[in-house]
Amino acid sequence: MKFTLLGTGTSTGVPSIGCECETCTSDDPRDKRLRVSVLVEHGGQTVLIDTSSDFRQQALRVGLRHLDAVLVTHCHADHIFGLDDIRPLNFRHGALGVYANERAWVDIRRIFKYIFEPSHFGGGLPQVVAHTVTHGAAFCLGPDFQVTPIEVIHGRLPVMAYRLNDFAYATDLSEIPPASLDMLRGLDALVLDCLRLRPHPTHLWLERSLDYVRELRPRRAYFTHIAHDIKHARDAALLPGGVEWGYDGLEINDE
Ligand SMILES: [Zn+2]
Ligand SMILES: [Zn+2]
Ligand SMILES: [Zn+2]
Predict the structure, then answer these.
(1) Range of the domain at 162
(2) pTM of the predicted model, to two decimals?
(3) Taking CA atoms, which of 136, 141, 142, 202 is between 20 and 30 Å from 25?
(4) pLDDT at 121
């Protein structure tokens, strides 16, 4: 299993437009964060979690040539607005399976109405094969590639975290319900929401993210969906051993 963090920034991206703070003006490439997304490679399969608003740039940056599936966490703009940019992959490889919960499908069909109810000829449309996921209903993307959708709470919105064998990706959440916690134990690697140091109504912040790491005890944890409040090198000292701030391009491999 290999995770490549394609984006680790909060919804505005970092730098934030017009901001002159220490992080937004930093030269450290780890302080330049595109919108959150992760590429998962395992057993010959390549899977993307979320088509972020920066998907095209992210795909070009890693030289993406093929996708076998897309998993959607939820339909906030920063996570879904890149869906139209799967078209070049469709041209070469045909329709792409997209997995999302029922709530997200309602939003995807509304936001991208032109895909599902085309009203004109011409203009390439994304080709999507819709799959609905539900909490706890695991499915396989390959002989040794199990995906378990796990419901977590983002403010008041239920969104999907995904466990992929012993790796898990859980972003955009403020709470993990008890039944979901049990599905996130025994992990080799966990990529977890951690917006900033101060509390936030719909995201985890440092203290809460670290509480969950202590509770779940993954072997390694990486924080994502990071705002400009966090400067990578300066704030590395805030984290205990086994926990790191994620950054764009970070690869997490089976060891
Ligand atoms: Zn987000
Ligand atoms: Zn800033
Ligand atoms: Zn969100």
Answers:
(1) 2-253
(2) 0.97
(3) 202
(4) 64
